[in-house]
Amino acid sequence: MELKELMLNDLIIFDEGIRSKGDLFDCLAKKLDEQNRVSKAKKIIKDLYKREKETSTGIEDGFGIPHAKSKYVLDPTVCFAHTGLMEDYVGLDGKPVECIFAILVPQKAADLHLDILSGLSRRLMNQEFRDQLKKAKTAAEVLHIL
Q1: Is 67 part of the annotated catalytic residue set?
Q2: Rounded to an integer, what distance in angstroms lies between the CA atom of residue 65 and that of residue 6?
Q3: Within a domain: 4
Q4: Catalytic option among 67, 82, 113, 144
Q5: What's the CA gap between 142 and 139, in Å, rounded?
Q6: How do residues 58-112 score in pLDDT, each as one tens digit?
Q7: Which end of the chain is more exposed for a tag (fewer CB within 10 A), N or C?
């Protein structure tokens, strides 16, 4: 399944006001709930934090890939957000995260979860891909880049 097939325009977020992981997860849960992608938004927030406790999902160059498998996810979904710099969410290189791809899949979709995560991780190794995403200003641009 293609990455852009799992994304909805309304789940591509540009919000410089998001300055913390808590703000990010709250925003994602609200948007996922509005689009009927989850059954319980508050549980999704807990599931994202549960995964973060294992190890941070911040990677490098300002990118993060928070992800969760949850019984509260109704349909496999990928969200993109370009936020303000989040000082409490940093990558392996110590840089604050500002661009994220959130991956949420139903509990029983472990293979799909890993496929999405590995495919996205490979693409994020490309500097040009990362630069294009950082410069994108609209959902249409993000989908075109993907």
Answers
A1: yes
A2: 15
A3: no
A4: 67
A5: 5
A6: 999 999 999 999 999 999 999 999 999 998 999 999 999 999 999 999 988 868 7
A7: N
E-assigned strand segments in the chain:
12-15, 63-64, 67-70, 77-90, 96-106
For 97, the token pair is: 């995260």
Residue 139's identity, in one-letter code, is A
Q: In degrees rounded to 5, what are phi and psi of residue 56?
A: -60, 145
**Chain length of the chain:** 146
Q: Is 66 a domain residue? A: yes
What CATH number is given to the structural domain containing 61? Answer: 3.40.930.10
Q: How far is residue 25's CA from residue 48's CA, in Å, rounded to a whole number?
A: 7
Single pTM value for the model: 0.93
Number of domains present in the structure of the chain: 1
Scan for tokens 């392996």, then name that residue: 92
Task: Look at residue 109 and give its three-state secondary structure.
Answer: coil
Tokens standing for residue 65: 């890939």
DSSP string, 75-89: S-EEEEEEEEEEEEE
